[in-house]
Every structure is written in C-alpha cells, then in structure tokens.
Amino acid sequence: MSSEITKMVIGIDDTDSREGMCTTYLCALLRDELSSFAQVISEPILVRLNPTIPFKTRGNASVALFIECDDKEKIIGHVTDKVSSMACLDNENTNPGVVFVDEEQFDSVSDKLSSFFKRAVKDVITIDEAKELASELNLEFQAFKNGRGLIGALSACGAMLDPDWDHTYEFLAYREKDVWGTRRSVDESSLFEADKQTYPDTWDTVDLVNDMVVCVPHSGDPVLYGIRGKDAGSVKKAASFVVSEPVERVCIYRTNQGTDMHLVSVSSISDIEEMHSYILEGEVCSEPVTIRGGHTIFMLKDVSGDVIDCAAFEPTKNFRELIRKLIPGDRVVVYGSVTENTINIEKIKITELSKAYDIRNPPCPSCGKRMKSSGSGQGYRCKKCSTSSDIPEKTEVKRDIVPGFYEVPPCARRHLAKQLLRFKNEEVPVFSGR
Q1: Which of 64, 75, 230, 297 is the most buried (most CB within 10 A)?
Q2: Nearest to 237, CA basis, from 208, 199, 204, 207
Q3: An example of a Gene Ontology BP annotation on this entry (predicted)?
C-alpha cells in the first residue's frame, strides 16, 4: 500500500570481503534500481572510517543514498533483499548493516548521527554501541550476522545529514559481472593522459615518480577504476579520457577521502592510543635505520622526553630516501596512524634542521698529518711529533634536505590522507609525492 511522499536516507556497510564484491557497487546498483520507483535526491555518500581497525574488509568504506519515495516499505524491502542476496555472507568477516532514516526523524537524529560519524573516523566503536544508538534513535535497521556493518551504516547516514565536513569526489567505474575476478583491461597510457589533462583538479590516478597506475585495483571486486578529485565535473572529465574494457555502470560519490578527517592533534606521546591516527610534533632523537623488509624507522621525542617509533614502510618507496636524511636534533611534525606503538607516516613537516658536521681526526700542528686515535675517550696523538689533542676536527656540512612539507607517493597513499595539493597557506614549502 502506498503512503505519503517522504524523504529517506539509507546507510549500508560491510557487504564485501577481501575476495570480492564491493559496498560501493551495491550502492550504485541500488541507486539505479530505486530510480525506477523513487527519486534519488543527491549524489551518494562514500565515507572511509578509522583506517586502523583490524577487522575491516578492504577499504573500510560505507555508503549512503538520499531518496524521495511514496512507498517506504517497498524501499526497505528492496534494499534489504538486495543486501541479503549480494553480500558475501559466507565470509566470516562480512557482517552487513543497513539503516533507514525517515524524513520525520531528520531533525531529532542528525546531530547524534553526525557525531557518531566523526567519531567512527577517528575512534574505535563497538557493535553494541551502534545497536544501542540505532535503538535509542528509534531507527529502522537490519543487522546481518553480528551486525558490525551497523557502525558504518549509521556513520554514512550521519555524513549524509551533515553538510559541514570537508569532502572530495570519486568517479567509480564498474565491470560487467561476467568478468569479475579476471584481469582488468585498462589502457595505462590513457590514465596518464587523464592525469595530464586534469591534474591538479584530480589526483592519485597515476604515480609519476614511480611510473605506476594507482587508480586500478587488483582484487576480485567489481571496480574497474576510480578517479578522485575536487569536484564531480573534474572526475567526470578525467574519466572521459580512459580507454578500457566495457563498463557496466558508473557512479560519482561525495566522500571524505583525502581530508585527514582521521587525524587528531596531540602534544604528548602519553596521549597516543593504539588504533588511532595523530598529528604529533617532536624532535628526531635517533639516526634513521632501515630494517629487514626495507622499512625505515627513527625515534621521535616529545617535550616531556617520551619517545615513539616513526616508520616509513617499504610501500612508501622514494619517501624513505627523505626520511633517511633526518638526523638527531631535527624538528618535525608527523602525520599518521599508530599500530604496535609505531606511527605509520603519511606526511611529514620538517620545521627546523639541526646542523650536521663532518668529524675527523685533527691535523698535527707541527707536521700537518692527521693524528691517530689514542683509544676511546683518550684523544688523539701524532706518532711522529708526539703532539696530542683532545678535540677532533669538526666541519659543518650542507644538508641535502630543506624544511618543508613532504608526503608519501600516490602509490602508498591511504584513502583518508590529505594530499599536499589540497593544503593552503602553508608557511613552509610543499613538496608533492608525485
């Protein structure tokens, strides 16, 4: 039976697995299917949540649709049936959640859902908290299996109802179903041309420094490629240059990707918790070392003297060369997520460089030849002239690095990490990872 015309927000999360499917594809499919008996009001929302959560599927993304309809129950039934039939429910880590927010509830629930969304990007939220909030707000929802997807579904609804958060856009092209799981066919030269024609209005399509395509995934999901940029027109323009296999459907999302929404500023290492992301200023207090696997690590000290490891992991490629040039005494601001008491660096701002010196045995004042060390802590001595000295020769050397803002290359960029090209009014030079 039809009812009065009403607006509705639909949030969905956790329908995919590491092997296949994609929650954004399901959203794009639903947008097209619902259009036959409802009106889609705005572009869909794609939000990335806390990137450190260990039980996420792939990109920790949730989605939301905003529609107007005259048969709410038909919408709820269609969406629930589609999630049930297409989600990877056989996978133990796939636990979908679907939330429906009716127009009559918008005013009473918007603030709490918005707060929940922003917290879910930065913090660790339990399934019980999500279920309690959905029940407290009297929302209609469906939790499959343990219902972990309710966290993302509620968050996406909160994002849709809150216009005041930094956002970018992504154009996603999806493959025809009969080729899912096979090798993708996308002309790489067309992607480099798309980047050339639209950068800096679009970004992370390719990695010029490492000569790599970034926007084409390698998993078995339906996504063919994704173009990210500042607005819908820019990503659509870039996609027009792409030459590829047939595309089943496309969808442009408004998203919190590239916003640094996950980061929290702290002044003290004692404020840092596992599975959270931070901006932390401090002093380099150890020489960077490269360990097995190619990861480069140094220790950072805060004002209280506490220390924490900071790492440029192997996937950051040439960014590690910059990190290896740091020396004790340099002052930096690091941006990144914390796991196992180590900050995974996404960006670094070098604010002050310490002086570097070349230390050598001093010359003999009589014959001019270099003295020999007399042993640890025992100074230097010229065997020929019997002269001695306690002070080595110390010559300042020019550092092969300058203060500024540096980022990892596009091939290592995390979804939420803000690209330096989006930074404005910086007081130090900005060096793009491209």
Answers
A1: 64
A2: 199
A3: tRNA wobble cytosine modification
Residue carrying structure tokens 């192997």 = 314
Query: What b/e readout covers 110-143, taking b as 16+ CB neighbours within 10 angstroms?
Result: beebbebbbbbbbbbbebebbbebbeebebbbbb
pLDDT attached to residue 428: 79
Residue 236: DSSP 8-state: H
Residues 121, 47: contact at Cβ < 8 Å?
yes
pLDDT at 89: 83
Alpha carbon distance 232, 170 (integer Å)? 8
The SS3 of residue 212 is strand
Q: Fold for domain 263-353+399-431?
A: OB fold (Dihydrolipoamide Acetyltransferase, E2P) (2.40.50)
**10-residue block means of pLDDT along the chain (434 residues)?**
82 85 94 96 96 76 96 96 90 91 97 98 96 97 94 98 96 96 96 98 97 94 97 98 98 98 97 97 98 97 97 96 98 97 98 95 93 90 93 94 96 96 84 85
Q: Which long-range contacts (CB under 8 A, 24 or more apart) does 2-5 make?
A: 2/70, 2/71, 3/70, 3/71, 3/72, 3/73, 4/70, 5/68, 5/69, 5/70
Give the residue among 121, 137, 390, 142 at the shortest CA–CA distance from 259.
121
Alpha-carbon separation of residue 218 from 18, 184, 224, 317, 390 (angstroms): 11, 8, 9, 19, 61
- With contact defined as beta carbons under 8 Å apart, do 173 and 244 qualify? yes
Burial of 265 (0-12, 13-18, 19+ CB in 10 A): exposed
Could you identify the residue written with the tokens 């949030």? 11
Give me the pLDDT at residue 220, please. Answer: 87
CA distance linking residue 351 with residue 404, whole number of Å: 7
Q: Are 211 and 195 in contact (CB under 8 A)?
A: no
Torsion over CA: 117, 171, 218, 10 (sign): positive
What class, spelled out in words, does domain 168-255 have in CATH? alpha beta
What letter does residue 38 receive in the DSSP assignment?
S
